[in-house]
């Protein structure tokens, strides 16, 4: 399992197991046509807007995301649903704060697997 973002050149190879985990995604990108959405990992618009509008800090976002999203999920079941070869996608470029890295750390903590950025 890996993480990346929608506009990465590294996800443009046909046949990859691309999984969108954001509330929205680009609709017209050819390389995303086979992408699946995994809504259970989407942070929800309210949480995203609170963070983007400066109503909550990064650490508050992390706590809220873990409590309201990840805390309700079984990590083993999610990993099984996604597949070992899944590439989890959202909007933020590598190095920027993003919930896909929270998910990666969650898998690491609960399943002892390393989920790197592609």
Describe the fold and architecture:
Helix 1 runs antiparallel to helix 2 (58-68). This protein has one domain (2-117). The mean pLDDT is 95. The protein has a 5-stranded parallel sheet with strand order 3-2-4-1-5, covered by helices on one side. It contains 4 helices and 5 strands. It has 118 residues and is an alpha/beta fold. The protein is globular.
Q: Care to give the gist of this entry?
A:
The protein has 4 helices and 5 strands. It is an alpha/beta fold. The protein is globular, with a radius of gyration of 14 Å.
Describe this protein with a few key phrases.
118 residues; alpha/beta; five-stranded parallel sheet; 4 helices; globular
Strand content bin: 5-15%
Give the integer mean of the pLDDT values: 95
Global structural class = alpha/beta
Shape: globular
Distance between the termini: 9 Å
Number of strands: 5
Write the H/E string, N to C.
EEEHHHEHE
Helix content: 25-40%
Task: Characterize the largest beta sheet: strand count, sense, and whether it forms a barrel.
Answer: 5 strands, parallel
Strand order of the largest sheet: 3-2-4-1-5
Q: Roughly how many Å is the radius of gyration?
A: 14 Å
Overall number of structural domains:
1
How many helical stretches? 4
Assembly of the depicted chains: single chain
Low-confidence stretches: none
């Amino acid at each position: 399992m890996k993480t990346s973002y929608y506009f990465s050149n590294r996800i443009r190879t046909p046949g990859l197991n691309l999984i969108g985990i954001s509330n929205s995604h680009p609709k017209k990108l050819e390389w995303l046509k086979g992408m699946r959405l995994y809504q259970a990992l989407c942070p929800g618009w309210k949480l995203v807007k609170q963070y983007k509008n400066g109503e909550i800090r990064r650490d508050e976002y992390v706590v809220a995301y873990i409590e309201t999203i990840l805390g309700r999920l079984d990590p083993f079941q999610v990993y099984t649903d996604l597949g070992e070869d899944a590439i989890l996608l959202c909007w933020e470029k590598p190095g920027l704060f993003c919930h896909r890295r929270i998910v990666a750390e969650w898998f690491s903590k609960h399943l002892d697997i390393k989920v790197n950025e592609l």
